[in-house]
Every structure is written in structure tokens, then in C-alpha cells.
Design goal:
alpha+beta, transmembrane, 3 helices, two-stranded antiparallel sheet, transmembrane helix, single chain
């Protein structure tokens, strides 16, 4: 558990340092992401982005445990 927390902390640190480059990626704007904008109201649900991240994390964790 301690090892996992350290790895997650390092990954978050690296993601924070790389944020200027990461923010240019189309995450949250993929086809399949739901976005509704009306006067005085906006709703954004990144459905496809969530699915892609879930698949990537599942593959990484599967590979790491193997």
C-alpha cells in the first residue's frame, strides 16, 4: 500500500509539472463527450474521455499485477 501511494504521488507530481503540455491534448473534447450549453446553463460530461482513461488505467494495472 505504501508503495502504491508513493507511485501515485510521483505520478501526480509529474503530471503537475507537465501540465502546460498535457492541457494541449484533446482530453475532454473527444467525440462522444456530452456538452450542453444554453443561456445561463452549461453542462459537460466527458463520457468518451472517461472510458478511454478507464481502459488505459485498467491495462496498466493488469500489466503491473502480471
Amino acid at each position: 500500500m505504501q508503495r502504491l501511494l508513493i507511485v501515485l504521488g510521483v505520478l501526480l507530481l509529474l503530471a503537475g509539472l507537465a501540465w502546460p503540455w498535457i492541457s494541449r491534448l484533446p482530453w475532454g473534447r473527444l467525440p462522444g463527450d456530452l456538452s450542453v450549453e444554453r443561456e445561463g446553463f452549461s453542462f459537460h460530461f466527458p463520457l468518451m474521455t472517461s472510458l478511454v482513461i478507464s481502459v488505459i488505467l485498467s491495462l496498466i494495472l493488469w500489466w503491473w499485477r502480471k
